[in-house]
Amino acid sequence: MPTRIPAIYIKNVTNFSIFSKKIISLTGTNDISFKSTPSFIIIRPNNRITYNIVIDYLKETEAEFHSFRPHCKRQYKAVIRNLHHSTITTDITNALAELGHSATRVVNIKKNHRPLPIFHVELALKENNKEIFKITKLLHSAVLIEKPHTKRKNPPQCYTCQAYGHTRNYCSQQPRCVKCGENHLTDMCTKDSSLPAKCALCSGAHTASYKGCIIYKKLTNSTNQKRQKFLNDKSPHVVMHRMLP
């Protein structure tokens, strides 16, 4: 299965003809496609090399853009249960390495500041990642290794530009303060705490992270409607499948 390449969203492109010709000259006509929206020019590279070329060019020209973590840089995640919380994480890493798994991060899980006999593990992407779930003994302890339980999450919010839908790790847009809405990073804000906040998204008298913000409500309502439509469209097929002998 081919690796999915993330799209790149660019703001404030004033001359698309010049911009697109430059991108094509760097990448080639068959390696890229464009899509225009009211807010962004969206570039969809066909491969990782093209993605890196475009990202490097946008950074060199100090363009305002954001993207997402490439699949090749993502980690494979697992949870180890029934391992004593005091177990040294480097011992876990070494034990997994002996079994052919490259752990890049091992963290003990806590609840209400109390350590649990559970460890969150991130592995470098390899063909044998799924084999980790077959491990039943680690460091002379009987363990259960399973996928992390996923729960519905709020849409991610960027701590640089405050927009929803991406994170600061892949954002090169103009910074906006979460407290006062001005064009600077939040850490550099000098607003007096006695003054009201100003939302960078809707200009309301609240921080940009406020879940009562009209922008956040519209986004979550739209997401919930799309999710419900997907379930409604899918359910008849599920019912029919269950009715078949």
TrEMBL record:
It holds the Pfam family PRE_C2HC. InterPro entries: Pre_C2HC_dom. Residues 89-156 form the Pre-C2HC domain. Coiled coil: none annotated. This is Nucleic-acid-binding protein.
